[in-house]
Amino acid sequence: MNVLKRPLITEKFAAMNETGKYAFEVDKKANKVEIKKAVEKMYGVTVEKVATMRSLGKVKTKYTKSGAVTGRTSLIKKAIITVKEGEVIDFYSGI
Question: Is pLDDT above 80 for 76?
Fold first, then answer.
């Protein structure tokens, strides 16, 4: 099971990066211990804190000839990682 799916790079999370907090989309079944180990192994940093949240998918409606079809996008789980002071995760190093 791959715990980390992708880093979340938005304006809100980019502002948090300056304070040592980084956001990732993670597997729905991953717990905080698994997330901590995966980040430490992949980026070589010391993780102090892991906060997780599950965001419910948005409701989408598609209008077709036979009527309206309503559904949801899939649920995602996010993790906000706080690293030790002075350490940095560089997402753009491999580009």
Answer: yes
